[in-house]
Automatic annotation (TrEMBL):
<dbReference type="Pfam" id="PF13379">
    <property type="entry name" value="NMT1_2"/>
</dbReference>
<keyword id="KW-0732">Signal</keyword>
<keyword id="KW-0997">Cell inner membrane</keyword>
<keyword id="KW-0813">Transport</keyword>
<dbReference type="GO" id="GO:0012505">
    <property type="term" value="C:endomembrane system"/>
</dbReference>
<keyword id="KW-0472">Membrane</keyword>
<protein>
    <submittedName>
        <fullName>ABC nitrate transporter periplasmic ligand binding protein</fullName>
    </submittedName>
</protein>
<keyword id="KW-1003">Cell membrane</keyword>
<dbReference type="InterPro" id="IPR044527">
    <property type="entry name" value="NrtA/CpmA_ABC-bd_dom"/>
</dbReference>
Length: 376
C-alpha cells in the first residue's frame, strides 16, 4: 500500500471528478487515474470524458466536474467572458507542450508539396476555405490564426473558420465538409490514415515548446480547497514525470486506445505520442515533464493569449492584462506543490521566437501588438 504524503494538511476533498476530451495529451490524467497516483496525496480521481470543449467549460462552471484537462485559451476566454459566460478561473499547471498540428485536404497538401505557397493553394480553391478549430478562444484557433497570418492569409477575412469537437475532425475532412483543421492528436494521424489529408504544419513550428493543455478549475475551487489543489498538482506532476519514459508512452497509448478514453487504435496514438518526433522531422515531440520545465504556469504564457484576443478584435476593453494573467495562473500554489515534490521551478521570463520571426518575452504588449502586419 502506498504511504500517504503528509507534507501538507489533508485534502479538503478526497474524490475528484476530472473532465477531459478524447485527445492523446489527456495522457497525464489517464496515467494518474489508471495508476492511482493520487493515493499517496490523499485523493482519488474519476475521469469524465466530455464530447467537446464547450461541455468542459459548462461542467466546470456548473460544478459537475472539479477540474479538467483544458485548452489554455479556453480558461482565458471564460475569464474574460469572450463569447460566453464569464467566471473567475484558475490554471493550476501546464500539462503538456507541443503535440498539435494543422492538416489540410489532400488536394491542398499536394499543391503545397508541388511548390505552391499556402496562400496560393488556398486561393486556387476559388472560394473561402473552410478550416476548423476546436474552441473560439482556444489554443487551436490561436495557432491556426497565427500560422495563416504568417503565410499572408487573413484568418478572419480570407477563411471561413468553424468550430468542431476534436473527435469529429477526421470525419468532417473525409466527408468533404472541411478543407483542413487545427487540433490535437490523434485526429491528424486518423485523418492521414484514412487518406483524407496530410499534416502540413506542426504547432511546435509556430511557437517552439508552446504551452498547450492546462489543469484548470474555477478560482473559487482553488481558494476553498487549497490542500486539494496542491494534492492534485502533485498527482499530475507524478503522472507527467512517469510519462517521460519511452516505454511508458507506449503503455499509455494502449490505455488511451480503449473506447472509454479515445477509441482509436494504439498504433495511431503511439506514433505521434512518442518521445522522439515520430518521423516528422520538423516537429518537436510532445513534452509532459522534463524535470518540471514543462509544468510551471508562467503568467506571461497566459498574457500571450490575451494579446492574440486583442489582435483579432475579440477583446477591446481597457483592463490590466498582466494583472488578469497573474490572477489566473496559480503560481504560488504550483510553487508550493513543486517545492514539496523537490521539483525545480523555472524562471518567470521565457523568450520565444515564432514562425514569423516575432519574439515574445512577456514584455511591452502594446509594442508587440503594433508589430503585426495582419490583425483585426
Amino acid at each position: 500500500m502506498t504511504s500517504p504524503d503528509t507534507t501538507f494538511s489533508a485534502p479538503e476533498r478526497t474524490h475528484l471528478r476530472l473532465g477531459f476530451v478524447a485527445l492523446s495529451d489527456a495522457a497525464p490524467l489517464a496515467a494518474a487515474a489508471l495508476r492511482d497516483l493520487g493515493a499517496r496525496h490523499g485523493i482519488t480521481i474519476e475521469l469524465c470524458r466530455q464530447p467537446s470543449w464547450a461541455a468542459v467549460r459548462d461542467k466546470l462552471l456548473s460544478g459537475e466536474i472539479d477540474a479538467a484537462h483544458a485548452l489554455y485559451g479556453l480558461v482565458y476566454g471564460v475569464q474574460l467572458g469572450i463569447g460566453g459566460p464569464q467566471a473567475d478561473m484558475a490554471v493550476l499547471m501546464v500539462l503538456n507542450r507541443n503535440g498539435q498540428a494543422i492538416t489540410l485536404s489532400r488536394p491542398l497538401a499536394d499543391a503545397i508539396d508541388a511548390g505552391a505557397s499556402v496562400k496560393q493553394a488556398l486561393r486556387a480553391l476559388g472560394r473561402p476555405p473552410v478550416l476548423a478549430q476546436t474552441f473560439p478562444t482556444g489554443t487551436h484557433a490561436m495557432w491556426l490564426y497565427y500560422w495563416l497570418a504568417a503565410q499572408g492569409v487573413h484568418p478572419l477575412r480570407d477563411v471561413q473558420s468553424v468550430v468542431i469537437p476534436p473527435p469529429r475532425m477526421a470525419d468532417a475532412l473525409v466527408e468533404g465538409a472541411l478543407d483542413g483543421f487545427c487540433a490535437g492528436e490523434p485526429w491528424h494521424a486518423v485523418a492521414q490514415a484514412r487518406g483524407a489529408g496530410r499534416t502540413v504544419a506542426y504547432t511546435s513550428e509556430i511557437w517552439p515548446d508552446h504551452p498547450e493543455k492546462v489543469l484548470a478549475c474555477r478560482r473559487d475551487f482553488a481558494a476553498l480547497y487549497p490542500n486539494t489543489a496542491r494534492a492534485l498538482i502533485r498527482t499530475l506532476l507524478d503522472a507527467c514525470a512517469w510519462l517521460d519514459a519511452p516505454a511508458h508512452r507506449t503503455e499509455i497509448a494502449g490505455a488511451l486506445a480503449s473506447k472509454e478514453l479515445l477509441g482509436v487504435s494504439r498504433e495511431l496514438i503511439e506514433a505521434r505520442l512518442a518521445t522522439t518526433d515520430g518521423g516528422a522531422a520538423r516537429a518537436l515531440p510532445v513534452r509532459f515533464f522534463d524535470g518540471g520545465a514543462v509544468n510551471y504556469p508562467r503568467a506571461s504564457d497566459g498574457l500571450w493569449f490575451i494579446t492574440q484576443y486583442r489582435r483579432w478584435g475579440m477583446l477591446n476593453t481597457d483592463i490590466d492584462d498582466a494583472a488578469i494573467a497573474a490572477s489566473v495562473n496559480q503560481t504560488a500554489l504550483y510553487r508550493e506543490a513543486a517545492k514539496a515534490a523537490g521539483i525545480a521551478v523555472p524562471g518567470e521570463q521565457r523568450a520565444a521566437t515564432f514562425c514569423d520571426g516575432r519574439v515574445w518575452d512577456g514584455g511591452d504588449t502594446a509594442a508587440y501588438l503594433a508589430g503585426f502586419a495582419i490583425g483585426a
